[in-house]
Amino acid sequence: MNSTKKILCAVDFGELTEKILLQAKELAGFLNAKVYVIYVVRPLDTIEQFAVPKSFREQYINEILGKANEKVKELKETIGADEKFEFLIKSGDPVKEILDLIEKEKIDMVIIGAVSKKTFGETLFGSVGEKVLKLSKVPVLVIK
Known about the structure:
The chain is an alpha/beta fold. The protein has a single domain, classed as HUPs (Rossmann fold), CATH 3.40.50. 44% of the residues lie in helices and 20% in strands. It has 4 helices and 5 strands. The protein has helices at residues 17-31, 54-79, 94-105, 126-135; strands at residues 6-10, 34-41, 85-91, 109-113, 140-143. The chain has a 5-stranded parallel sheet with strand order 3-2-1-4-5, sandwiched between helices. Helix 1 links the parallel strand 1 (6-10) and strand 2 (34-41). Helix 3 (94-105) packs parallel to helix 4.
């Protein structure tokens, strides 16, 4: 009996996003699973060394959220997302938001993309992916 019924894709709208979603769509088809897709906007509050005015932070978040919604519409069309897909756009710490969603929705598997960074610790996964891989209580599939 298959126990994977909920798959979470953490995306950054980078070059691997479409590949991640197509892989998730294929897996979901085989497993009859639901796919949650999460994109997290990092708030400017995390840049503590700079005094960023509140009005600018709100404008930044609204602009990024608007662009993210446009990108979601494009991706839905590109990959042929159906009712098994649920797209979520959040604001906050990406690792926390991803791990919280795993718990809240009782996710069975996470799919993330590998990236190419310069530091050794970030060579394969990036800082968010690396932390999710280490902290996730469910299996994590990494797409290259």
